[in-house]
Amino acid sequence: MIEWLFALTIGLLAAAGLYLVLGRDLVAVVVGLLLVAAAGNLFVFGAGRITRRGAPLVADGATVLSPDAGNPLTQALVLTAIVIGFALACFAFSLVLRLRSLGAGPDGDQYEFAEPRPDADGEPGDPT
Amino acid sequence: MNAWSVLPLLVPLITTLACLALRDRPGAQRWASFTGAVLFLAVAGTLAVGTAKGVVYETRLGDWPEPFAIRLRIDALGAALLAVSGVVLVAVLLVPGRGESATASSPLLLPLVHGLMVGVGGAFSTADLFNLYVWFEVMLICALGLIALGRERRHLDAALRYLVLNSLGAVLLLCAVGGIYGISGSLDFGAAATGLGGSESASPAATALVALALLALLIKSAAFPFGAWLPAAYPVLPTPILALFAGLLTKVGAYAVLRLVAEIAPAAAAPLLEPLGWIAAATMLTGVLGAAYHQDLRRILSFHVISQIGYILLAISLGTRAAIAAALVYTIHHILVKANLFLISGLIRRSGGSFDLRHLGGLASRPALAFVFAIPAASLIGLPLTSGFWAKLTVVKLCFAEGRYVFGIVALLVGGLTLYSMTKVWIEAFWKEPPEPVYPRRLPAAAWWSTYSLAAITLVLGIHPEPLLEFAALAARLGPLELP
């Protein structure tokens, strides 16, 4: 039961995130990236068993973790990925803010700063 | 022996910190940076010579016992690519890019360049999937920093385009790595390969995860249809940095595809090789068509990066040991040639005043420049006596030997279109009467050294290719698994 709910949540998060990323509003695009990253993190988290019994500690005398405890390694992976994802999102937000403060509009589709629009006759535009 | 495998990581890391500490003293920073680059090349060269004798450099980090440790493992494949990266790094740092944009004179330029090399060095030396993901992220953030360093709107726009697709790719890679761990119980290349069922059989779930990883890596290596970010983002960089990006970044993605398909999950990837081949063919074609359309040298060459990645992926998709060797030869050839062409495009701009072919002309009056352009251009096309001839010949020959006639014909056709594109550059920039009067400027001596050395390597590999081909055959013997 919980597995299905978990899987569905990941799917919904990823779908919502992708929907936002495909949009034109750049702030929403970055929020979408955050959602997709969250879905990815949950996916990795799920690879290490979903359970609520037992602490991830190897019992006295045993050599491996008991199967009713969550795998701490995937949690460590997720922790690293969260840090990286947040740093990238902050960078992306600051890029968007800086672009806006330099007079760029909110609609990313209209940007022609990096790639000049082709001339009217179809020839490539003059480089910036 | 152990210490050697840490050095490709440690040298650029220390250089990064030194460059960061010296950011207020440009002269000292340049020296630290160049010393670090030469050291990196020396380390990588030593590793390559060692691996050619059959040594594999391996370390378990923290000296943890076998299943728990993160391993660094440099075999002939990794060492060869490290060595070529070192050559490109030194060549790129020799060429001053000042005057093209604010990026080139920023005190943060060199720390970010060496930070990028930390990621490249890490990716080529690690034997751990999650570790590989982290090195991709290190490269991504340093690359973003370098793109955004120019601070104008075009740089920020380019950085954003680069960021969105590449961070989606990073999330996909993370998911695939987590899933592969979930199935195989290990992140180590060797142990994960065993856990995924070795080379005999693979579950559909394993194939799905490998497909996810391939998708992520195809985004990172700018394959069709995910390549749009590359020609959008690269041209805002000053040409020396652009040469570094074009030489190394997408090739790390192709390298990871190679590891995945040939070493980590040969069985799980087997059903994916056919679609990979078609993607490779589409990448080659769309790349070269983009190059044929554009007039800005930087965009033409950026589209050729995509087209050439197609050749490497095509070789990988054939899935035999000889094809893996061909992919390595192609990658080495391509890194040197592509970096050199971008460096030369910077020299063309300095002498002709523009990157746009419509504003260039008459550069044939500078024979030294024309000569040094002709060598890598001929190599990109695949003319005899250059490294590109052998690289293309082996790939095309393998396509026909494997009965993949369509792929072989596409590869030949793309070679023809590359010829067209390079002829266009030659006629427009070198033969045509200059549309505006140009006042020739002296080009820096270091830039001549750098471009002529890279061109010389291309020629040497073209005239005497046996050592490289033999080395690649050795390097294609990856890991414990057997390929057909």
Detail the poorly predicted runs of chain B. Answer: none
Structure classification of chain A:
mainly alpha
Radius of gyration of chain B, in Å, reads 21 Å
How many strands of chain A? Answer: 0
Low-confidence stretches of chain A: none
Taken in chain order, the helices and strands of chain B follow as HHEEHHHHHHHHHHHHHHHHH
Largest sheet of chain B, in brief, is: 2 strands, antiparallel
Tell me the distance between the termini of chain A. 57 Å
Radius of gyration of chain A: 22 Å
Q: So how many helices of chain A?
A: 3
Q: Which pair of chains has the greatest number of interface residues, and how are they split between the two chains?
A: A-B, 43 and 45 residues
Give the total of domains of chain B.
1
Mass-distribution shape of chain B: globular
Q: What is the averaged pLDDT score of chain B?
A: 92
- List the total number of helices of chain B: 19
Which structural class is indicated by helix and strand composition of chain B? mainly alpha
* Biggest beta sheet summary of chain A: none
- Kindly report how far apart the N and C termini of chain B lie: 32 Å
Q: Which helices and strands, and how do they pair?
A:
The complex is a heterodimer of chains A (128) and B (484).
Chain A: H1 2-21, H2 26-46, H3 72-101
Chain B: H1 2-21, H2 26-52, E1 57-60, E2 71-74, H3 76-94, H4 109-125, H5 129-148, H6 153-184, H7 189-195, H8 204-220, H9 229-233, H10 239-264, H11 266-269, H12 273-293, H13 297-318, H14 321-352, H15 367-381, H16 387-401, H17 405-431, H18 445-463, H19 466-475
Antiparallel strand pairs in B: 1-2
